[in-house]
Amino acid sequence: MNVRRSAAVLAAVAVLGAAAPAAADSSPSPSPQPLPSALYGDTDPQYDGVWRQSLALLAQHAAGAEPPKAAVGWLTGQQCADGSFAPFRADPSAACDAKTMVDTNQTAAAVQALAALGGHDAVTDKAVGWLKSVQNEDGGWGYTAGSPSDTNSTSVVVGALAAAGEKPGEVKKGGKSPYDALLDLELPCTGKGAGAFAYQPEKDGSLTANADATAAGVLAALGKGLLAEPGEGDGSAAKCVKAATPEQAAANGAAHLAGELAAQGYLLAATPGAEDQPDVGNTADAVVALAARGDTAQAEKSYAWLEKNAAGWAAQSGPAAYAQLILAAHATGADPRDFGGTDLVKQLQAAGPAAPEKTAKATEKAEDEKDSDSPFGVWWFVGVCLVAGIGIGFLISNRTKRQQP
């Protein structure tokens, strides 16, 4: 799932949205801090450190590669005493407090990665306990404790529960399970966006189709996580029928995704003010969702499109993007070491602890980003998100709420 694209942008939107205008601060900015050597990627981990680390470890495990012990140790060391995870704690020895911005997405992603690797039951059990404690009355989860349920956050938590050996349908709050929350977030089979999942209800209670949320919703309704095995099916998408069960909701969501992918093989990005362009991350997530359900015909076609077009995107986007593509390869039974001529596993590993001069490169890049005047930088995108009114949602490298017709 796209995994779904940036916790950094989304969390920044939340911070900016809550902040009052202030006079410019003329004091010098602090120098960028060196990044931990065990961390994947060389960009600021403040909003997605645990998320991208978790995906990197999970993807290597999926490809049969053993992640470095230092990278695993860094992830386990990020956990707070109550079991939750924040995106990044520069000083893990300092106790978490009310100002530590923990969230369900980082926590659930860490559970999925550590459960797959094995040998970390104490960490995952405590994390699952925290996730259960912040479940909403409708059965779902929001990005942060107490925030309204959304499809993406509910999905990554369902994946964590399943990875930890829980039965998601039996994890209830107020008598409702995660599947009840998901059924409430799926559009009917008639009208615009038939069968898709919404990220969250609109202010008037209506639901708007969202491709990213739909991919996440399909996986969750199947009771699967980010590391999804190829599903059993006849290879074709089912028709949309009113969903009374999670399985039917998954079938409906998959049918919607297959329909959106059919024309060009990829999903379109919905960036305000921009021309239509492929959304590579959402397309990779859709491939995982379709393959996990056994809808192999469209999954394989779209995976072939990714092989031809996604290597450059991953190189630019970083380790979480490489991980997404590896997980798409795993779900379709493809070889991530031969991805259109690119070895995705090698590229991902190069972004990890073994990468030379990583800290120096990260510091230099942080300085460049700080001084950049480009109208297409991160903060420009944050501004667009604010104007669009997009709230906190499911993470990963560039993820924003994406609405599909």
From TrEMBL:
Squalene cyclase C-terminal domain: residues covered: 107-154
Keyword Signal: yes
Ranges of compositional bias, category Basic and acidic residues: 358-368
Taxonomic superkingdom: Bacteria
Family annotation (InterPro entries): SQ_cyclase_C, Terpenoid_cyclase/PrenylTrfase
TM regions (residue ranges): 378-396
Region annotated Disordered, chain positions: 21-42, 350-373
Signal peptide: 1-24
Keywords noted in UniProt: Membrane, Metal-binding, Signal, Transmembrane, Transmembrane helix
Protein name (record): Terpene cyclase/mutase family protein
Organism from which the protein derives: Streptomyces thermocarboxydus
